[in-house]
Write a structure and sequence with these properties.
The chain has 4 helices and 5 strands, in the order αβαβαβββα. The chain is an alpha/beta fold and 117 residues long.
């Protein structure tokens, strides 16, 4: 049986594999699933599979993780239009309405997600 943590990792990796391509501006969310998306983005940049990516983190924790993986970071001030934003949700109801947490990154997450296509 697959653990919840393994499912989060698969989801985070798949989001990068399916939705991020070279040359994009990417919003990086905060939380346990977004952690794995940032990890995967760093792997693909390091391997050369992705190039010319810049990212906008939604929290200090995500910023520190991205920096440690060599992901180039920018801000909404310099890049107000994003190609994609990757983030998780705390809950999803049967109608696919997402519930985000009320943590300190919520405002930044909303700002980044609104700027994404």
């Amino acid at each position: 049986m697959t653990s919840q943590e393994e499912l989060k990792k698969q989801t985070g990796y798949k989001s990068v594999d399916d939705y991020v391509s070279s040359g994009m501006v990417v919003g990086l969310g905060t939380g346990s699933t977004a952690y794995y998306a940032v990890e995967r983005l760093g792997q693909k940049l390091k391997s050369g599979e992705l190039k010319d990516i810049v990212a906008i983190p939604t929290s200090i924790r995500t910023k520190e993780q991205a920096e440690s993986l060599g992901i180039p970071l920018v801000t909404l001030d310099t890049h107000s239009k994003l190609d994609v934003a990757i983030d998780g949700a705390d809950n999803v109801d049967p109608f696919f309405h997402l519930v985000k947490g009320g943590g300190g990154a919520l405002l930044r997450e909303k700002m980044v997600e609104l700027a994404a296509d």
